[in-house]
Amino acid sequence: MRDAIIEIRDLWFSFNSIPVLKEVKLTVHRGDFIALLGPNGGGKTTLLKLILGLLKPDRGSIKVFNEPAGKSTHRIGYMPQHLHVNQDFPISVHDVVLMGKLRPGRGWSRYSPKDKGAAQKAMEQMEIWEFRHRHVGELSGGQQQRVFIARALVDEPEVLFLDEPTSSVDTKHQTHLFDILGELNRTVTIIVVSHDVGIVSTHVKSVACVNQQVFYHDDSEITHEMLEMAYQCCPVDLVAHGMPHRVLQKHEDSD
Amino acid sequence: MLEALHFEFMRNALLAGLLASVACGVIGTFVVVNRIVFLSGGIAHAAYGGIGLAFFFGLPFVVGTLGFALLVAMVMAVVTLKAKHRTDTIIGVLWAVGMALGVILLDLTPGYNVDLMSFLFGSILAVTTSDLWLMLVLNILILLTVGYFYNDFLALSYDEDFAKVRGIRVNFLYFLLLAMVALSVVMIIRVVGLILVIALLTIPPYMAEKHSASLRTMMFLSFLLSCFFTMTGLWISYFFNLTSGATIIMVAGVCFFISLFFELLRSRKPFSSEK
Fold this sequence. Notes:
The structure holds two protein chains of two kinds.
Chain A: E1 4-15, E2 18-29, E3 33-37, H1 44-52, E4 59-64, E5 67-68, E6 76-79, H2 93-98, H3 113-125, H4 141-153, E7 159-163, H5 171-184, E8 189-194, E9 206-211, E10 213-217, H6 224-231, H7 235-240
Parallel strand pairs in A: 3-8, 3-9, 6-7, 7-8
Antiparallel strand pairs in A: 1-2, 1-4, 4-5, 9-10
Helix pairs in contact in A: 3-4
Chain B: H1 8-33, H2 37-56, H3 61-82, H4 87-108, H5 116-121, H6 129-148, H7 150-158, H8 160-165, H9 170-192, H10 194-209, H11 215-240, H12 244-267
Helix pairs in contact in B: 1-6, 1-9, 1-10, 1-11, 2-3, 2-4, 2-9, 2-10, 3-4, 3-9, 6-9, 9-10, 10-11, 10-12, 11-12
């Protein structure tokens, strides 16, 4: 058995006394590539923020690397949703990526040449090195997405969390992005949040549907039931604008 | 033109403008990028309550205003962290109550009729040498704090969640930031007055933001712009015998609209930011 790096037991969370997540149970093992799928408002991002320690659960326990959520900061890479950053903010690509090397209590010391080397490596990996002196707000949505992934990668995390990494990327670049993530997955555990079933590519190893409750599926096949549970709507609509080459499991019991 | 420098009050005024510009450049940059202009306005107005307290209890002016402004800033920080969706309402309440408290306490202070105009528009021509020393000390405090936490403040301002995930003490930094806003506000009130504090905290950083590649450059450019506005405003007010605080802000305002006009010509999209 591979070691479990994230263990969630009987997790409940509500916002303004409206339940968001109920009796969630989820285990993530080293080497996993999990897609958290579900409708908007289904609690995907909330679940991610709970795992990261940004929110506190009402009940239940979350262990990350055998520690309470929010403790193992240096082993985690995080790419937040892209929309919430201020596009006017005066900051270069290079400085955003270096932010990934931030540690508490550094005080006067600035980023070292070693940190800058790591930033260069991450930028080359995400193919944004040529933009390093550009203002982040000037880049396209997809390029910005890669900047934020580079920032998440720069400290060589053991587990990488990506919140809607494809929200502003076209299908062609989506495939490319997932090829890169698939490559990373050889050494890094990856958890991707998305409202788009189309992201479930060949690289994703398992799927968890999040809609108040979490339904975990140990392979990347999307079944009719899963979609029903997660979206309560017709799966064909959801898949049609995703990846055309995806083969869905046959619906044996449908006529 | 230089004969004006023979007057001590003019030399002090110019130095006060210079010192206020340091705080405006550094703190105004954070105020603009963190979008806490309204909050800073709240602190500035509520500080009037501190003036009332100072006169009523016979405390030194600086102790009263600074203490009260810091208290209000901390209350606002707590509210922002605990109930974000109520922040603007609470700011509005503190804004109004602070001013009312100041007015009532001054009513109740026997024999003293404080000059509300000097609080509103400042009294840069009445700045004393000890005021200058105090401003210098506050500036050094602000520069040291921002220098020490520069990367942390940068992360907090750009992407708070990310900073938290990296283990940065975001709440502590937010308190610290608002405390520095309160310090600067009290300092700048002495120079240009309450109403115009917000203009000096926002106009230079707003103009600087577009031409800056980093937060550091934005701070430095705001400082230069602030210096230019205060110096030019002071000379104009001296030669035309106008209220200095208001003149400084008119200079800043005119430059602001000129820059906006050129922006409009160039891109036809002012305030263009959201894509």
